[in-house]
Amino acid sequence: MKQHTIHKYYLCIVEGVMQKNQDTIICYHQKLANNQAKISFEPIKDASKITTSYKVLKRSATHTMIEVELHGGKSHQI
Q1: C-alpha–C-alpha distance, residues 50 and 10, integer Å
Q2: Distance between CA 3 and CA 14 in Å, rounded?
Q3: Which of 7, 15, 22, 46 lies at a 20 to 30 A Cα distance from 64?
Q4: What pLDDT digit, counting tens, does each position of 24-77 carry?
């Protein structure tokens, strides 16, 4: 039986020049009231672990274009 997998990729232009060509960032996501979220690099109570990978596509003097892959796709993850 085939398994269907969805990968979520986004193109982003971010302010500043990112030094690494690619990286994976692990954070913790906690839902708050009014469709808000708290994102932390340290584990927090009742938070889900989220993983986001990026790859630099282009750099300018002041901005970086990156391809972002969301592993899990929580709201406010990017």
Answers
A1: 16
A2: 34
A3: 7
A4: 999 998 888 888 888 889 998 888 898 999 999 999 999 999 999 988 766 555
